[in-house]
Write a structure and sequence with these properties.
Layout: H1 2-33, H2 37-50, H3 55-67, H4 74-93, H5 98-118, H6 121-133
Length: about 140
């Protein structure tokens, strides 16, 4: 009997977490679309703690993070991490297509801008070369 109760509790908890994540995702994207970056970042952060495989959400999270300044340029470092560690890796896991290449180019162009803002000259030159070469 105890095993059934534990299973039921775990199942209900899992369903509630999925529902909360779906609501958090929707709230984050709505807040982002409305230009409420503080609110969007809170929701993105909550969702991202549990689910890191959502490319669309990751790219919006990175953009929002880059647009809302933090002390010492931390917002740029965090945006770079989101675009590179997560965004490009998620993109590489997807099937290669014209859309894939367009999104890769968009991410690289955004990274080029952020590297320039952060004064990261070497990374900016490397990224510019990657964009011009059209490769990964």
């Amino acid at each position: 009997m105890t095993g059934c109760a534990v299973f039921a509790f775990t199942t209900v908890q899992s369903i509630q977490q999925k529902r909360m994540l779906a609501e958090s995702r929707r709230s984050a994207l709505d807040a982002y679309a409305a230009g409420k970056l503080d609110e969007a970042l809170k929701e993105f952060g909550y969702f991202f703690q549990h689910e890191k495989d959502d490319l669309e959400l990751n790219l919006r999270f990175a953009e929002a993070r880059a647009r809302l300044p933090l002390a010492d340029g931390r917002h740029l470092a965090e945006a770079i991490d989101l675009y590179t560690t997560h965004g490009l890796k998620l993109l590489d896991a997807a099937p290669n297509s014209a859309e894939h290449e367009r999104r890769r180019r968009d991410i690289l162009k955004r990274l080029l801008t952020i590297y320039g803002q952060a004064g990261m000259r070497f990374e900016a030159v490397q990224t510019g070369d990657r964009i011009l070469a059209g490769g990964p």
